[in-house]
């Protein structure tokens, strides 16, 4: 098979920017929007995030099954990008719309729109990510694809969402108006980027037709121990940045007393993320994806924990330590997505059943579970602390937000390092897997 061209990887990876303009707007601001703009209690927000993930436990594997068994002139996965882009971003607008409703009506509206968003996100993001497993079987090319994707997903999307959204919202008379217009602009951009990815991506790896049935979904997941370990690590790694991002605006608005510092903070993080994205391919090539993921996780834990002990008036030091943590975090984000396609071949080799859709569906479910669990833990902890929107913080609420911004992410990252000790796919094993699978296909 011919090597992938850089332009092919670039155009495919633009889809991740499209997905993350949507995904990160939800991750960064929806909890704040619900509590401080729409007027829903933190307790209801915590419950909503958990209920939505219970539904995803059913929805995601079924979508993986459907994608695996899809046959179209565009391939198995690409049509979902074409036809799902508009519904995904229309429901984004609904999430940031504030109809005049009773308190109960607001909660019901939030449940309906947020859960529907999760369904549409799965419809698009799962097939999109699955394409990476059928673009190439070369481990280093997969690492490069992951690097490009995370550059767009984390560096560019983070810059737009983390740095640009709050100042944009401040241009309007109310946050209510500002967030809705921001959702409109980002949603339209997301559709265009996803369509570019659709038109220029290609499913290049010829694989056997999927023959498994719905009843095989659970065995496909739970017999693939490498997938389980990697998904567990990804859940914890995602919880690191979800927790930090979800409480960042609370931290700067209430603890440090200046909400505008959030945009400055993420502007400082951008060079760190960019440098991390540039360096990661060289690190993974030298040390492998697993070791890169492991030791970067430990680094994130150390620097997140150290930030907790820096005085509030030492902003330069807070930002510097955060930048180092973000630099290491890019290694983790890129490595985890570069490792996921390898578990597809591993599962095929171990069980005799090949599926791209189910491993990616399980990964998608675990990623959304991380968002929900981390978001729910943060929201419920703030509720228990006595947090009330747009009032002076109690001592308990102040302490809780500080812990959520610093200590809790450090704990998640340490646990991620421990989980990765049980991952077993290294370079030699992967080469053995590909050789044996190729031999079986030649004989059949």
From TrEMBL:
Q: Where in the cell is it found?
A: Cell membrane
The main place the protein resides is membrane
Query: Which keywords fit this entry according to its UniProt record?
Result: Cell membrane, Membrane, Transmembrane, Transmembrane helix, Transport
InterPro entries referenced in this protein's UniProt entry, alphabetically:
MFS_2, MFS_trans_sf, Na/Gal_symport, Na/Gal_symport_CS
Top-rank taxon: Bacteria
Membrane topology term reads:
Multi-pass membrane protein
Q: Name one Pfam family in it.
A: MFS_2
Q: What residue intervals traverse the membrane?
A: 12-32, 38-58, 79-99, 111-129, 150-173, 179-201, 227-252, 264-283, 316-339, 360-383, 403-423
Protein family (similarity comment): Belongs to the sodium:galactoside symporter (TC 2.A.2) family.
Q: Which PANTHER family match?
A: MAJOR FACILITATOR SUPERFAMILY (MFS) PROFILE DOMAIN-CONTAINING PROTEIN (PTHR11328:SF24), MAJOR FACILITATOR SUPERFAMILY DOMAIN-CONTAINING PROTEIN (PTHR11328)
Report what the protein is called: MFS transporter
Taxonomic lineage: Bacteria, Pseudomonadati, Lentisphaerota, Lentisphaeria, Lentisphaerales
